[in-house]
Amino acid sequence: MKKQNALIPYLRPVSDILLITPPFTQLNTPYPATAYLKGFLNTKNIATEQIDLGIEVILELFSQKRMTEIFARSQVQGKELSSNAKRIFALREEYLATVEPVIAFLQGKQPTLARQIASENFLPQASRFDQLSELDYAFGTMGHQDKAKHLATLYLEDLSDFIVECVDPDFGFSRYAERIGRSANSFDELYDKLQGPMTYVDEVTIEVLKAKLTPSEGNLSPTPLLQVSPPAQRTSEGSREAKGASENAPHFKGSTSNTSNARQPTELPDYQTTLACLSVPFPGNLYSAFRCAKWLKETYPGIKTAMGGGFANTELRSVNDARVFQFFDYITLDDGELPLELLHEHCSPKTSAAPAVPRLKPLLKRTFHLEDGEVIYNDFSLRRDYRMHETGTPDYTGLPLDRYISVIEIANPMHSLWSDGRWNKLTMAHGCYWGKCTFCDVSLDYIGNYQPVQATLLVDRMEELIAQTGENGFHFVDEAAPPALMRDLALEIIRRKLRLTWWTNIRFEKSFTPDLCRLLQASGCIAVSGGLEVASDRLLELIKKGVTVEQVARVTAAFTDAGIMVHSYLMYGYPTQTVQETVDSLEMVRQLFEAGTIQSGFWHQFALTAHSPVGLEPEAYGIIPHHQPIGFANNDVQFTDSTGIDHSRFSFGLKKSLFNYMHGMCFDYPLSEWFDFAVPKTTISPDYIAAALEYEDDSLSRKSARIIWLGGEPEVTDPGADQLEIRLFDRRDTDVVTFDEGRGAWLLSMLKRIGDRDQSLMTLAELRINYEAAFSDFEDFWYTEEMTLVRGYGLLVV
């Protein structure tokens, strides 16, 4: 028997699966899908690597080398440039001299550059800088580092405008060729574009991907570690004839040095891959995903390609165009863990090399593929999906965490969270615990399948991620985090004495009391985002939102008073919405911002989706959908509203007013000022929100709520006359309260008991019973001035 070649030159384990995020998503932090999948596959001992092409391509584009090419290309397009583009081109040497220092600054590598940038004399300026009149006012609360980040962001946006006008009209920082991916009922346009020449961004993307995958010339072992598949006839999935892995399997270059933005050479091949999986979360990733898959199939004919992610989950549930599978062998739906595990088994060398048997369909999970040239939906596996507690901890290994760039598009601390800072991403609960909103895809798994994770396991995962990434900031990417689980999470963080920062998405429901918000803040929660949607009680009821405007005002005030920032998602154009309701909704929003209960927001026009209750029963909401034949994507559906109102007319005015409200400006402007057409006066009382914020404390009604003490250890003195003087401390203040000796001693013993993090939590009912065993009138005692002060120092009912 011939002796096998030694495998020593391969210093790293073989990677069976390559996970790719195509351009573009976020600039400041990785989109979490590949990290989630890698974490799960670790639990199955399946070797994986991941690439975030989004950040890799952005860093390549905004380099001196590529910007030199872009400026050169702009002169051979043969079209007249705008005055703004001409200005940028005239200042090209300034841009070439500053682009790499700016990127380094936004990566946190040159913090001292902030002072030069903030001086406004360092960066060349084009049209994006026209909005700077209120800059000093806006950054009075944010500081010169954030001001410099904002200016650097405007600088990059100027360059982006130049690229769009002169080189590649599809470019965008967080999306590419997004229009093609929106409601692409037919695959024709996307297919035709893929048959055409590559754009400049395509060329850069493929160069970056190629650099990651090209085998090293130093391959000392001719024997491949993995077979892609043996030489064979066309498979049952209709893929092209497979060749030996030595020809077809790409070696993946693991990350080397993160100290430079330049791609680094690799001395030895690290991985061979049998399955390349592209996660497509948004329409703005779709085209690039297909372009990358096309290159992979052409370059490595034996490799299998798969697509999953949010776009597939919502848009590709009815795909039937066989041409799609020229690019992707498989498209999986919903949670990717089990489908990917089964694909790995199906594509593995052992499976591919099995002796001939009567052909059976592979046992896959929620997977589209070709069978004899026809698209089939393969859900033949009887294995159950993994529960959230079985999916492992996300693994960011291989991603260049120190090379992401933090940007600030708007001078608003809450709004900047999405683009500024590196966040570890986790999920408290799969799906939505409410699951009733009529505009939402409640019929789909990502909403309808609710699975919470235990708080102890969540905090275990947080500690693992801190150790893995060195970052202690967390963004919980829930559809709507459950209040009870948020409480338990906060208590567990506090019990373990962790110091970290986190934020999440919520529903503005009454469970978020002032005390619960204070507990969340004490655990490190800095912000929440939630949907007010249409600020009209009639429409909120029609939406089945389960909240009222008054309730939203109280909940947002509770968060804000606790020091937690609030962002609200706002909607206009909901079916049957009148012009009057749109104006009144804007007035509600104006009052909420003026009252300081909301710091940030975003207006979007209602979009009808095929899988929402409105989409499934349009006649119940007074709309007529315009369905198209579906060969590819099916989600957004055009429709006619029975009101006949053109809601798009309101878009600019709503967004302009909100932009000013977020900067604390123009609250005294009449609402009609924001529109270039006549609108009715609001019917909302000018003090509606102020009145809603005046309500009585009902904490004693929550008998099963837990009692917790967050304050410092009290100091006791005895002033005599059968009294106890208790000095209270928190992080900022000190106060003294006086009780009679009996009640003072009781209070001190209770504070010691409920302040012990290792003790089980006492309920409010138990506290009341304990008090009334020695005294009477607990309610009168609870609402005394002294107890109100004690509660303010950290005695919480949660």
TrEMBL record:
Alphabetically sorted, this entry's keywords are: Iron, Iron-sulfur, Metal-binding, S-adenosyl-L-methionine
PROSITE patterns given in the database record = RADICAL_SAM
Chain spans, region Disordered = 219-266
Secretion signal span: none
Co-factor(s): [4Fe-4S] cluster
Write one Gene Ontology MF term.
iron-sulfur cluster binding
The protein's superkingdom reads Bacteria
Q: Name one GO cellular component term.
A: cytosol
Where does the Radical SAM core domain start and stop, copy by copy? 418-633
Compositional bias (Polar residues) spans? 219-236, 254-264
| Protein name in the entry | Radical SAM superfamily protein
- Lineage in the entry? Bacteria, Pseudomonadati, Bacteroidota, Saprospiria, Saprospirales
